[in-house]
Amino acid sequence: MKPPPITSTAGLERCFRANVGPVTAFVARRAHDPDMVADVVAATFLELVRTAHAYRPRRGSERAWLFGIARHRLADAVRANRREIPTGDVVGRDLLAEDEYERLENAIDALRIAPGLRAAIDRLPAAQRELVLLVSVDGLSPSDAAAVLGIPAVAARMRLSRARRQLASMTANDPLPTLTPQATRSVTR
Amino acid sequence: MNRTSSQTTVELPDFEERLCALLVAEHARLHPPTPQAQRRSGARRRRAALVVAGAAALSVAAIALGIGRDGPLGPSAGSSVGIGVASASEVSKRVVQSLAATDVVLHAVQVTHGADGRDYRSEMWFDEADPYAFRQLEWDGSSAAIDSSTRLSGDQLETITWDIAAGSATRTRIPDPSGTGEPGQSQSERLRSAFEGGKLELLGTPTLDGRKTYLLADPSEPSVARRIWVDAKTFLPVRMTAGPDASSYDMHYEWLPRTPVNLAALVTTPPADIPITTTAPADIPNTTAKEADSGKTP
User: Fold this and answer.
1) How far apart are CA B228 and CA B241, in angstroms?
2) B75 pLDDT band (50/70/90 cuts)?
3) Rounded to an integer, what distance in angstroms lies between the CA atom of residue B106 and that of residue B120?
4) Which of B27, B183, B284 is facing A49, going by the closest CB pair?
């Protein structure tokens, strides 16, 4: 049976429940504190409610689309240097239960990328860096990562291939882990 | 998407339930379940604008590399034209018609504004009649760094990558490109979808590089702040910007006739003294959540 579209209430709830965990993890890897995570996650899904009509499956998965929204909300938060993201009547941090703040803090630590590998990734050009993070860390397929970044799938694949070569070359002379599949797995630890 | 279905998640049950309740309430507020509203909602969905990503600054690079090309479609860039179309919907309709042509080579130059304050430039060529044909040239400052192109050769997807700085070149062949997400939408299709939704607003008729244009904005995603310039004579998009944040970009489009000279620009051709080494397909990182999590998340 075809799942309900995200423009319907049932579809919205399905999409939310299927993606809220990964979106929270995506934001937690990039945010500074639990308040920011909660605010950005709330802002992301509120934007889903308000712009669901603009989603087109052929452009990428719902998750890729949500990651794209979350990226922009995070950029808003960082650019404005605000601890609270305006989302109308909803402030994400107010929705956190007492114990969840601490759990989120732990999650931020757990999801942090290993410093050595992070340093290598940070030395990549901006376009390659984000692609590597989306694929290697957030687990998107190259095609979905391409949709998040708004580039053709073939361009993402080429860029990713180059990024891996560059990382391998960087880490060959440094005491850093290389981005072998095994080391890649350590990225998320 | 099977890979992402098992990826790292963070579970916050109370937060999720509260947020879900708020989202459903917000949805009900925006879409009251009356028959009239349901009809309106259906119409909105049909009209909804698809957002296009992309970006660019034009053919300085191609000229620097000596890439030959025949001139762009339509009148010369400097020609003066009148602005006779007043509404965004009419401009959009004309753009959709113009983008239907497939006998075109699209040259796009993208400048991405990095979070580190630097600009990263890349050029792309697309054959609108062959969705597999694609070339990308990446720049490092003022020097061309990597030149790659992909095309379907028989039933194999062949990529040639010339690392200009390193003086090496490789050829990779993927025996069966199905499942790689390619060829995906053509650039014309992606652009066209932005104009089909009827959500664009006409901001003005500025002059861009000496030519009259229509400037349109997409208000459906205010945070993206996407703006598109359309040539007033050819009704083809000539520039798109998004931002202004760390991930923002500036894209310029050049629409070229599908002549042998312009098609040749789609092929990476390293100098004869650089041998092309054939390599295995790129080993793309393939982390799965179960492997990655190891019980670290709450």
Assistant:
1) 7
2) very low
3) 20
4) B27
